[in-house]
Amino acid sequence: MIFAGIDVGGKNVHIVITKDGTILAKVEGPTGINKAEAAEKLYEEALKKAGLKRGDISRVVATGSSGSRVAFADGVIPDAAADARGVIKLIPSARTIIDVGAEEGRAIKIGPEGRVLDFAINERCAAGTGTFVDTMSRALEVSVEEMAKLSLQSTRSIPMNAQCAVFGESEVVSLIHQKTPKHDIARAVHDAIAGRVSSVARIVGLEKDVVMIGGVAKNTGFTESLKRDIGMDVNVPDDPEFVSALGAATAAATGVLEEKVEAKVVEKEMIEEGKS
Amino acid sequence: MAKYKTKGLDCWNRAKELRAKYYKDYKEAHDRGALRWEGGAWSFDAIPQALEGEVHGLTEEPYGASIGANPELQVRYQEAAEGKWGCARDLCAYLRNYWGSIVLNEFAYGGEWPKADFIFQNHICCSHAKWLQVAAEIEGGNIPFFCFDVGAGAYDKIGERQINYVVEQLYDGIDFLEKVTKRKIDDEKLIQNVKNTYDSACYWAKACELNQAIPAPLDEKTMFSLYVLGTLEKSHKDIAHFYKDELYPEVKDRVANKIAAVADEQCRVLGDSQPPWGFLRIFRYLEKYGIVSIASLYTFSLIGWWTIDKAGKLVPYPTLEEQGITIKDRDHALRLLAEGELKGKLMWVPFYGAKYKNDIITKIAKQWKCDASIIHLNRGCEGTAQHQMEMKIAVQNLGLPVMTFEGNMADEREFDEGRTTRFIDLFVTETLGLKKVAD
Amino acid sequence: MEASEILKQFSDVWELRHEYAKDWKQKRGGKVLGYFCTYAPEEVLYAANVLPVRILGGHEAPTLATPHMFDMWCPFSRDCLNQGLQGKYDYLDGIMATNSCLHPRQAFGAWTVHVPTPWNYWFVMPNAVRSPRARKFLRGELEEFKKAIEEWTGAKITDKELDEGIDIMNTNRRLMKQVYEFRKADNPPITGSEAMTMVWASQLMDKREHNDLLKQLVDALPQRKLDRDTGVRLMIVGSENDDRPFMEMVETVGGTFVIDDHCTGSRYFWDEVTPDNDRLQAIANRYCDRVPCPNKDWGMEDISRKRFTHILKLAQDYGVQGVILVQQKFCDPHELDIPSLRRYLESNGIPCYFLEFEVTVPVGQFRIRVEAFLEQIQAEELFV
């Protein structure tokens, strides 16, 4: 049977189509303002890529911060649950997942069967998310990829504010004015985000194997900083930004139909209650 | 078919009536020649309420909370405090509500801000004394102000020296009251007020203790509307009577007849701190999964008094009758009042360290047979948010799953309902592995 | 020794505080006790040959502290806990807390659970400091504290030793005040940053050694001429502050901090113990009467703040032209005071500028803002 997993995040949508656990196609695109439309459009693209029609898919499960907007999904699972399902499939020895996307950084402790035992999320601010990386790279006037490369060249550690993206950006500007070498600033930025992310991860406890997923996992500057910070190895699977979608597809394979219906009903009730 | 029988509380309406009357009396006090005072919910209301004649108080915390339960009002008042007075946004949310109310010259219960005749305040944390110090300043600086310190040490270190410290300040307080109001403290009234305080505090604790039953007769959302009376005026005879003769017997009856707060109770939760007042519907959401919040140090002990018995169990503080005490005179009354608050109000223990809080919440989790914990990391109150992350670790060490979510008891700008619901979904369906049981 | 050399020693202690303390332990053989808040009664500790060291942050992201203190607690307190969790204070024999504001209490609470410091103590410093009842209560607390220290160290504290402890503390206070007097000059021979480093060193080193250096500094300062313009005379007021880069930045853009009010500054040492036969009562009186932390700055019978008139007097005595209010993010005590303090100072003709501090500050951005503030003051002076 063939299944689809759709991860609708704040910035991007990721879709995978699987058959017998193998990925047939994967597609990525911007979420934009109309999330339902974005999901629909990209789903069509994924089907085309896989050479399939809608009817070929046995079940679709959505996840992500806007997973519930996927009108055609048969079920929705919480994003951290999707992370867990996806990671445990790829790396059965995983026990701690760090997922840093554009808008949220989270840490998840999972059991051997992939169940979410504990989770923590950086609740306040863009600091510790992909947006922070983007903002700092713009301040440095380099691309995110270049910033990562520069960071790996530095051997110096400069403490930088990691609690507030606005403060952080100000500090980068200050460092530039102080004529600090770019590669040292790049490392400071990555160290700061790594510190923020690791502090969230420490809330759930760092137990190996530690796996990193989400868009920021592709940033080697960041993963090096993180390894240094936590003093442990960090496993990054291929296509880390698709792992959540893979998890949703895995959930589809095990059957979560009833959850979507409940989620919709409950959401409706909450809206009603809010009005009264 | 629901698991247990359930019904609403018979005394529910009475609680609402008492609360409404309290604010009405405060508002109309001057019309009747009665005195008005502002003070803390922990302010030993037994004392100013013992002045001759009619007296009504406005306690700051519940007033701040009332505004917090109305997000529209709360934002307006807080913006006034932040914009016009100029205070920081991360100060205690109740405090900003309160100051905003004065800045705008509005009373949340209608009309203009009712000016008080004096302030009778207590202090334990960073802000209580300052709260009303600044409030008085905003109002023009002409209200007589008295504040006493209750930060005398942890409950297990309270001896004569600590009680004396507080009692001596209370005597100073009495001198102050008599001077500024030109009325005397009536010792008979004082003695009765202290008796009432004991009844309110001990019988609320007894009612909370009954929540150890399965199913729990009360849920925290309901309990919030019940403990609040004790934050208004523990020393009032009607409020003492409510706890002793109405609520407590009714809860006992519910336990005897296995009447549950939530018919499908399947997961008993330990909470902490005030909830986000404008979003109590999250409790109803949890109930759809049979999840009931039934216990918390905050709800039990903001007004309730407790003690640790010889077996190391958390039990309600003994009433005056149980201790075989008849109050003799003013001094005896003041000592008993101070002792009860200092030894019994375990809501104060977190002020003295994480080990104290961990000890108490561990006892609560075990005795109340909790299955999980949901902790509201309350950015609105440093006092009740103390050691919450340590509490998480301690509860996890007991083998219970714990979830935390950041929010604010009375600032809706700091609470993300959508996000919190996502976390709850994850916790409930994944970590707890529960399915929906009710609509 | 020249003034600059002495000041360098203070700076070294601040930077190498842990090495200093470990060294002290070896040489003196006494115990080292960490404290969070300046209401800790150091007189008793010196009497017992205990080295009190203030726990200060490391100005780095408090990564290890997050699982213990979530983000709304003040960055300084989280930084302090982070240092403990990192093992930087593994040489401490004990740690103590007082009834400080709630933020360091969180750090202390988590510390006692997770950092293996062998001994800890909670000192119940009363809050109603203006009440005579607090003096009496505090004397009782000091009695118990003294007994606890005696038990901990295994040695009784005699009256003579208490007198010595009081003398060490008073001498330190007096000497630092003398150094501060030099800052009243039109061209102070010591910058604000240097003066602050002197105070930080006092909180981190044996005050007997500090006193020796201070005596030499008092002698050396009259000869010192700084090759700089004093510029705008500033006062720094607020929460804990040991952010040297910030202080140095302000003093390179046309300002000089000539005085301060914060707990790693003058508030720490401004008031002495008035000796008395009842030593413990004398100490109690000092801690009740000292310039208060905002959370203790309230009266029994009125809404006045003792600290405000004190700040104004300092500003006037030191010829201050502007006040920079610094506040650690989330700091309740200062947030409660700042709107009123601002109004008070401005109505007395002293302009204020507010800055919020974190463990590290964006010096570049703050520079722009401080420069604007200094320009504003200078422009106003032109038209006065």
What does it look like?
The complex is a heterotrimer of chains A (276), B (439) and C (384). Chain A has nine helices and ten strands. Chain A is an alpha/beta fold and 276 residues long. Chain A folds into two domains: 2-88 and 242-272, ATPase, nucleotide binding domain (Nucleotidyltransferase, domain 5); 93-236, Nucleotidyltransferase, domain 5, CATH 3.30.420. In chain A, helix 3 (130-140) packs antiparallel against helix 6, helix 4 (144-153) crosses helix 6 and helix 6 (182-204) crosses helix 7. The longest helix of chain A has 23 residues, at 182-204. With 439 residues, chain B is an alpha/beta fold. Chain B has one domain (5-431). Helices cover 48% and strands 12% of the residues of chain B. Chain B has a four-stranded parallel β-sheet, sandwiched between helices. In chain B, strands 8-7-11-12 form a four-stranded parallel β-sheet, with helices on both faces. In chain B, strands 1-6 form a two-stranded parallel sheet. In chain B, helix 15 links the parallel strand 11 (372-378) and strand 12. The longest helix of chain B has 23 residues, at 187-209. In chain C, strands 2-1-3-4 form a four-stranded parallel β-sheet, with helices on both faces. The termini of chain C are far apart. The model of chain C has no long low-confidence stretch (mean pLDDT 95). Chains in contact: A-B, A-C, B-C. At the B-C interface, helix 5, strand 5, helix 6, helix 14 and helix 15 of B face helix 5, helix 6 and helix 14 of C.
> Radius of gyration of chain B in whole Å, from Cα?
21 Å
| SSE order of chain B | EHEEHHHEHEHHHHEEHEHEEHHHEHEH
The main pleated sheet of chain A reads as:
5 strands, mixed
Helix content of chain B: 40-55%
Give the full name of the CATH homologous superfamily of the largest domain in chain A. ATPase, nucleotide binding domain
Average pLDDT confidence of chain A is: 86
General shape of chain B: globular
Number of domains as seen in the coordinates of chain B:
1
Residue share in helices of chain A?
40-55%
Task: Assign the CATH topology of the largest domain in chain A.
Answer: Nucleotidyltransferase, domain 5
Provide the low-confidence segments of chain B as ranges.
none
Specify the structural class of chain A: alpha/beta
SSE topology:
The complex is a heterotrimer of chains A (276), B (439) and C (384).
Chain A: E1 2-8, E2 12-19, E3 22-30, H1 35-50, E4 57-63, E5 75-76, H2 79-90, E6 96-100, E7 105-110, E8 116-121, H3 130-140, H4 144-153, H5 165-177, H6 182-204, E9 210-213, H7 220-230, E10 234-235, H8 243-254, H9 257-275
Parallel strand pairs in A: 1-4, 4-5, 6-9, 9-10
Antiparallel strand pairs in A: 1-2, 2-3, 6-7, 7-8
Chain B: E1 5-6, H1 12-28, E2 35-39, E3 55-59, H2 60-68, H3 71-85, H4 93-103, E4 118-123, H5 128-138, E5 145-149, H6 160-181, H7 187-209, H8 220-233, H9 237-256, E6 259-260, E7 267-270, H10 281-287, E8 291-295, H11 297-301, E9 306-308, E10 314-316, H12 320-323, H13 330-344, H14 354-367, E11 372-378, H15 388-397, E12 402-407, H16 417-431
Parallel strand pairs in B: 1-6, 2-3, 2-4, 4-5, 7-8, 7-11, 11-12
Antiparallel strand pairs in B: 9-10
Chain C: H1 3-15, H2 17-28, E1 31-35, H3 42-47, E2 50-54, H4 75-85, E3 94-98, H5 102-114, E4 119-123, H6 132-153, H7 159-181, H8 192-204, H9 207-220, E5 232-238, H10 244-250, E6 255-261, H11 266-269, H12 279-289, H13 306-317, E7 322-328, H14 332-347, E8 352-357, H15 363-383
Parallel strand pairs in C: 1-2, 1-3, 3-4, 5-6, 5-7, 7-8
Helix pairs in contact in C: 1-8, 1-9, 4-5, 6-12, 7-8, 7-9, 10-15
